[in-house]
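If your schedule permits, I should be very grateful for your opinion on a structural question. Kindly check, if you would, that the fold set down in the tokens agrees with what the sequence suggests. Thank you for your consideration; the sequence and its tokens are set out here:
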Amino acid sequence: MNSLRKFLSRPFGWLIAGIWFLCRAALVTWATLAIYYSNLPWAGMRLALAAAFAAFTIWAIWFSRQRRMPVIAIVLFLGVTAWWITIRPRTIVIGGRRSR
């Protein structure tokens, strides 16, 4: 029984690690795109903020050895999420009709 548990634990561990990586990558990607497609007035500023956010969070989550860096990345992510929630949708005029 012990050999079976050892045999199954390795692929299951890899599966969990892969899912955990994909979840973190999806959250970083979502927040980066939320900044990039936000309602900030200058395209250059949106691009610079999105790139800075992505670079910092990738470094903080995967490369930094300090224990507080992932916490700072999570707080930054929550700030971006709270800011994104407050953005009002744009009104788009198509053929004289207004839609959201």
Remarks:
- The first strand starts at residue 92 and ends at 94.
- The first helix runs from residue 2 to 36.
- The chain has three helices and two strands.
- The radius of gyration is 20 Å.
